Amino acid sequence: MPDPKEHVKKLNEIMPKIPNMKWGALTNAYPTNAKLNELGRLLPHDKKWHSLFEEKDKIHIDGVTIRRKNLDSMT
Fold first, then answer.
1. What pLDDT is attached to residue 3?
2. Domain boundaries, the chain
3. What is the pTM of this model?
């Protein structure tokens, strides 16, 4: 299995740097305002690009899986 960190390194070499960029994301889902706000809390403001793959119950950010939980189901 390829190293996710190597994938992110290559992604940052290829993608353009935008002035005043906080972070960038390549994702499989259409970005909405709510999603951008969520990503603003999740991603570091390191001026780098990140890869995101979203599924119904989890999201993969740069090869790291984060499970989504509904607050109602956490009782």
1. 77
2. 4-73
3. 0.74
